Amino acid sequence: MGKLSGRVALVTGSGRGIGRSIALAYVREGAKVALTSRTRSEIDAVAEEVRALGGTAFAITADLLDGPGIKDMVGEVIAHYGQLDILYNNGGGLHGDLADLMSALNHDDVAFEKNIFLNLTSAYYATRAALPQMVKQDYGRIIFQGSGYAKRGGGTIAYSAAKHGLIGLARAMAYQVPTTITVNTICPGWTNTSLADWDKLGKALNIPAATFKALAESENVQKRILEPDELGPMAVLIASEESAGITGQVLSVDGGYRV
């Protein structure tokens, strides 16, 4: 019996990177999972990995810039499984041309709004749709995907503002749900995902890709870029029954990012 046996988990943005790793970690602990992404081929590939592990997956496409669509997606997951115990709001990232996001002096206004929605508002919509079912079940685990930039400055303004907002959303919500439902934020640092595109990031700052990567590595105590699978153990713990006393917290898996 795994720590999540009998549970159903929805992981947004689970077609690759950290979302994929979280979904597979949940499956290894006995959970049935729902996988979402805009790209059907990505979630279908992860669903095959789930089945290879002997698990159960429900794959559904979703656009995290579409609020009503997000609610519909959560509703479909609940209708499919008849329950929803764990919501990991992983989906997010940078929307638009990186050059248009780097400076507050020339930031693109439309890109700002879309990045706030993608990284903050989308998590509200998914959580709002999931909560009634969790209250009905008298059990739930809501997890927001933060960032090193959720706790300090240094990132693009929209992304940083949205990730800071997730911490506020989690802390406020923790007071307003039954005690059988917990709400937490997990913050990765620099992790080996598509967001860590050293060529693109270096170009945005007009420095070589290798220089940017070295700077990123230097920002944590362990002087390295973490792998997505390293988020799994923390995600499992916070989703499990034994985490009942952990709520409203910010938990970092980041190699000691800017401590």
Topology:
Layout: E1 8-11, H1 17-28, E2 32-37, H2 40-52, E3 57-61, H3 67-81, E4 86-89, H4 109-137, E5 140-145, H5 157-174, E6 181-188, H6 198-204, H7 209-218, H8 232-239, E7 250-253
Parallel strand pairs: 1-2, 1-4, 2-3, 4-5, 5-6, 6-7
Helix pairs in contact: 1-8, 3-4, 4-5, 6-7
Features of the shown structure:
259 residues; alpha/beta; Rossmann fold; 2 domains; 43% helix; 14% strand
SSE order? EHEHEHEHEHEHHHE
CATH architectural name of the largest domain: 3-Layer(aba) Sandwich
* CATH superfamily annotation of the largest domain: NAD(P)-binding Rossmann-like Domain
Number of helices: 8
Which fold name fills CATH's third level, the topology of the largest domain?
Rossmann fold
Termini separation comes to 37 Å
Walkthrough of the structure:
The N and C termini lie far apart (37 Å). The mean pLDDT is 94. The chain folds into 2 domains: 8-189 and 228-252, NAD(P)-binding Rossmann-like Domain (Rossmann fold); 197-225, no CATH class. The chain has 8 helices and 7 strands, in the order E-H-E-H-E-H-E-H-E-H-E-H-H-H-E. Strand 2 (32-37), helix 2 and strand 3 form a beta-alpha-beta unit. Helices cover 43% and strands 14% of the residues. The chain has a 7-stranded parallel beta sheet with strand order 3-2-1-4-5-6-7, sandwiched between helices. The chain is of the alpha/beta class and 259 residues long. It has helices at 17-28, 40-52, 67-81, 109-137, 157-174, 198-204, 209-218, 232-239, and strands at 8-11, 32-37, 57-61, 86-89, 140-145, 181-188, 250-253. The radius of gyration is 18 Å and the shape is globular.
